Amino acid sequence: MTTGGRRAALRRGWRRGRRTLIPFGVVLVLFVATLVTHAVDTPDSGDADFLSPVSDAAIGSARLADVLRGQGVTVVRHTDPRTALTDSGGATLFVPAAEYLDPQSVGALRSLPASTRIVLVDPPARALRGAGVPLLRGDRRWATAPVSSGGCGIPGITEAGASAARRQSYVVEETFTGGYDACYDRSVLRFGYPQEVVVVGAADPFLNGRLDEHANRAFAAGLLATRPKLVWLDLHERFQPPEQPLPTYTPEESEPETYERPTTNPQEQYTQPPGGRDGPPGEARGGDDGDSASITDAFPPWVWAMLATLGAALLLLLLWAGRRLGPAVTEPLPVEVRSGETVLGRGRLYQRARARGPAAEVLRQAALRRIEPALGLDDEHGPADVVAAVAQRTGRDPAQVDGLLYGPAPEHDHELLDLARGLHTVADEVGGVVPAGPSRDTPPGSAGPDQGEPR
C-alpha cells in the first residue's frame, strides 16, 4: 500500500472512530476533573501536614497556632495520646484526627475532668461511642459549605458569624435526655457534662488555606481559646499502645472540679436531621460501627459523584451516537397493487371469515362520511336527523333510508352486496352525482355499473 493509501485509510478510520472516541474523551476529562476537585477539597487526615500546628502547608494549622499564641494561649503539641491525655487537665484538648485513636485512648476521654474542653473534628462513630458522646452521624455533604451560627450558645463562638463548618451533620441519640447546644446547621454540637465535649463536622475552619475565609478565624480561635492552655494531639496514623496500663489523670486536691452548664434547656429526645431521614436514628445505624446511616453513607461521596458523572457521560454518548431523524424519503415500491385488487382482497377476507356484520358496518360508516358533510348538519345531529335529511334530499322513503344506513346486519352474501349498491347510490344522490329518485336503484341481484365482471 502506498503512503497516500495508508493516509486515506487512517482518515477513514478516524472518521469512523471519532463518534466513539470523542464522547469517551469527554467522559475521561469529566472523571478526572471530578476526582481532582474532590481531592483538593478533601485533605487526607493521614498526611503529616493535616491540621498540624507546626505545618505551614495549606492543610496545616501553623497560622491558627500563631493566632492562639497571640491571644495568650499556651499551645502544647503532642504526638502520643497518652501524654496528651495526662497533660490536658484544665486545658483544651484538640483532637483533629480521632479516627487514629486506639480504643483505650478513646475510652480514657471519659475520665478527663470537667474543667477540660475536648474538641473533636469530624470523629467517626466508633470514637463518639467510645467517648460516651450521645451523637449519631447524620447527612454528609459532598463539599464543605459555609453556614451561619444561627444564634449559637457555645462559649467562645457565640459571635463568630458564618463559618465553613457544614459538612458532616449530627443527630442526638434518642435515649439522651440532657441538655446540649447545636449550632451551624447541627454541624457543631456541645455537651457540658460530665466533661465538655465539642464536636465539629468539618476541618476547613482550622486550615491555613481557609483561615481567612468567612469567619473561620474567629470560629477556630474561639473554640480553642476558652482555656489558657491548648493540648494539640498531632496524630496522623493509627496509634498502637504498648501493653501496659494507660495513665489516667488524677486531679490535685487544690484543683477545682467545675464545668460549664449548657446554655439551653434539654431538647427533645430525637431531632430529625436536615434533609430528612425516615425513622429514629437507632434504626438507621446498621452494622457494628454505626457509621452508615443509610445506603448513601455506605460508600464514599466520590463513588456517587463518579456514578453521576458516568451517567451524564453515557447520556452524552447516546445523544452523540444517536441517528438524527431527517425528512421522509419516498422509495419506489417493488410491486404496484391496484386499488381494485386491494378492495377485492379485503372483500374476500371478509367473505372467508363470514364477517358480514363488520363488513356492513364499514360500508355504512364510509357512506355516512360522504353523506353527512353534503347535508350540512350540525355537530349534535343524531341518526333520526340524518334519515330525515337524506329522505328530504333524495325523495326516498324514510324507512328505506333508515334500513340502508342503520338497519340490521345482512345474513347472506347477496344481502351484503345489495346493501353496498344501495349505500353507493344514496351517497351519489345526496352528493348530486346522479339524479335523485328510486329509478336509479339497481335491481337486487343484477350487475350494476360498479360491480364489474364476475371473476
How is this structure best described in words?
Among the domains are: 62-241 and 257-285, no CATH class; 356-440, no CATH class. The chain is 38% helix and 12% strand. It contains 13 helices and nine strands. The protein has helices spanning 3-41, 62-70, 81-86, 103-108, 125-130, 216-224, 281-284, 301-321, 339-353, 356-375, 383-394, 398-406, 413-431; strands spanning 74-78, 92-95, 117-121, 135-147, 163-172, 181-183, 188-191, 196-200, 229-233. The strands form two sheets. It has a seven-stranded mixed β-sheet. Strands 4-5 form a two-stranded antiparallel sheet.
Tell me the strand order in the biggest sheet: 1-9-2-3-8-7-6
Q: By helix and strand content, what is the structural category?
A: alpha/beta
- Strand-and-helix sequence, N→C? HHEHEHEHEEEEEHEHHHHHHH
Shape: elongated
Low-confidence stretches: 265-293, 442-455
User: Could you estimate the helical fraction of the residues in percent?
Assistant: 25-40%
- Overall mean confidence score, pLDDT: 79
What distance lies between the first and last C-alpha atoms, to the nearest angstrom?
67 Å
Q: Could you tell me the strand content as a percent range?
A: 5-15%
Number of strands: 9
Q: Write down the Rg.
A: 44 Å
User: Can you summarize the main beta sheet?
Assistant: 7 strands, mixed
Helix segment tally: 13
Protein name: DUF4350 domain-containing protein
Organism: Asanoa hainanensis
Keywords: Membrane, Transmembrane, Transmembrane helix
